[in-house]
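Fold this sequence, please.
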Amino acid sequence: MVVALVQRPISDVRPPGSPAAGRPTAREAIVHRVVAASDGASGLAGKRIVWVLPGEALGGAERNALDLGARLVGQEGASVEICALSDRPGRGRQIAAESGIGWHPVPFDWSGGRRRKLIGLLRVAVAIRRLRPDVLVSSTNLPNIVCGFVRPLTGARQWAWVQCDVLGTERVRKGTFEWLLRRATLVVTGAHQVADWLVDELGADRGRICVIYSEVRLAAPLEGRDAWRERLGLGPPDLGVCMLGHLHARKDHATLLRAWRHVVDELGGDGIRAVLVLAGRPAGSEDALKALAYDLDLREHLVFAGDVVDVGGLLGAVDLAVFSSRSEGLGRGATEPMAAGLAVAGTDVAGIREAVGPDGVRFLAAPGDARGLADAMLALLRDPALRREVGAANAELIRRRQSAESTTDRFVDVLSTTANGHRE
């Protein structure tokens, strides 16, 4: 039987030890302390920023927004509120609360006729207007589209559109999408290939696009390597490989599983046992993947780990990362393992190619090429010295390219310029 590793869900309640009624919340204490310390020095001090996200489930876009929001509150003295277009449970609300960020679910469903969409858009507009934003920020396609329609009704003087992928949308016609994009004060992307896509496919003005990589920060491991390897069923001589990515159709776990069958067979011939760990929440493709894993007889060589909280601990327990996907902006499934000093094999799509850099492209395989992906993994798994060399180079690349100074600081500067009524 394929192993399923289940972690205790985090409830959406105030953490233990929170202040009693009548006392300042953690959020209020953070804001008051920073505003007092900044004495108005920051261009964002006292500004009200409303960030519109799809919901509480944590993908790369949501994590980036929460990391940036924490910086805006904790160091810049801004007030940040999240408007979530779904009320389905996830970890986003608690992470926001821990950083002093407000959370406001406003469920919105794009399906249905025009009247239903209009009512939904008005509800979102009213909810945002009540938060009195100086700046509106939106991340991912649905929030970007919604904010494009409602921004004039929200009272926000400026609006930053954050483009996270190159998937486009079927919710509106291409011409409408282009029109909404032009209405944004500022467009931010997390990768050069995303900026190229906006210009080439949607006719965006390159002069209005800021490319700002996301900072990569891994929390300290909650458990050590030995504890994690024991949980994953990895003995001292075994090799562990992991993929970070939610189980949905935009990732390509199916090609990875077929590649993994080749890896297991060839390493098994050398007397080596290997285990693949899929770390990500179920998001629509989990049943098909489990059926495929059964058909491929991967029972002893595969772990479905679920939505892993202790990402740093997991990465410290495995020997290699793999990232198989159909399309990416700049995939955190590649950059986080790189930051942890792991070599990465993966799919040769633009967002992963940009993530691993020129030296990492040799370990990428064409989309859908299970044999090629297996060969890339085998080249690294069979050569410990090569894994260490590539892993060290990956960590250095992330340190240089995605440090706080070149990512978060840059975003704060751009947002400050926008919030004060200027364009770069």
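The CA atoms of residues 110 and 117 lie 6 Å apart. The chain has 16 helices and 14 strands.
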